[in-house]
UniProtKB/TrEMBL annotation:
Protein name as it appears in the record: Cytochrome c oxidase subunit
Keywords recorded for this protein, A-Z: Disulfide bond, Mitochondrion
Family indicated by similarity: Belongs to the cytochrome c oxidase subunit 6B.
Disulfide bonds: 31-66, 41-55
Domain of life of the native organism: Eukaryota
One term under GO cellular component: mitochondrion
One Pfam match: COX6B
Organism the protein comes from: Pogonophryne albipinna
Amino acid sequence: MAEEDIQAKLQNYRTAPFDARFPNSNQTRNCWSNYLDFYRCQKALDAKGVDTAPCDWYKRVFTSICPISWVQKWNDQREEGNFPGKI
């Protein structure tokens, strides 16, 4: 049942919902947090050998609120091994 709920939410997803941790209009920290959460989630679930589909929520959020140039820069930094965040 929980898996079906997650899949239904992902299907109906349009844009990032309100997050009480980031009440201001400046969504920079929200963008950064969701980017990190996506890769942390993937890493944790991969280590357990579990399906990483629940992590897609974070990816949808950060792709809807983060500038593409930031995401590309962070992806490049991760690939080069000099990403400043802790994943």
